Fold this sequence. Notes:
Number of helices: 4
Distance between the termini: 42 Å
Order of helices and strands: HHEHEEHE
Structural class: alpha+beta
Radius of gyration: 28 Å
Strand order of the largest sheet: 2-3-1-4
Amino acid sequence: NLMKVILNTLVQISLVAGAAITLSACGNAQAPVQMNSLYRQMQAQTQNKNQVEQQVLVRFQADASRTQMQAFNQRHQLQTENYIAGINVYVMSFRNQIQSRAQMESVLAQLNNDLAVAYVEINQNVQVAPVPYDLHTQPIFK
Length: 142
C-alpha cells in the first residue's frame, strides 16, 4: 500500500515537472516581443471599426441588362469598381461618402428594395485580431 502511494506521488510529480518543462521550452522561453506594438495594432483596429465601409457587393437579378445596371448606378449614386465573376457579384462604391451606420442601413434597405437587385451586402474588410507571441520560443530539440 505504501508502495502505491509513493508510486502515485512520483507519477504526479513527474507530470507536473514535465508540464513545467514543456511550457517553459526547457528554459529557453523568450519574453513576448513588442507588447506595445501589439497594443497599438489592436488600438488601430478598434479605430477602424468605427469607420463606415464605403463599398457594397451587389448581385443583380439574372435577367438584368447592362442598361438596367447603369440606371441602377445612377439612381443610387454608385460606381462599379470590380466584378467578381466566380460569384456573379459587382463591387460598387458610393459617389457620396456614407457618414454613419444608420445611413448605411438606410441605403442598404433602398438597394434591397430595387427590383433589379437579387442580393446586396456591405463589402467589409475582415481581419483576425493580433495574437500575442505566447508561443514565440526557441525549439526544444535542436
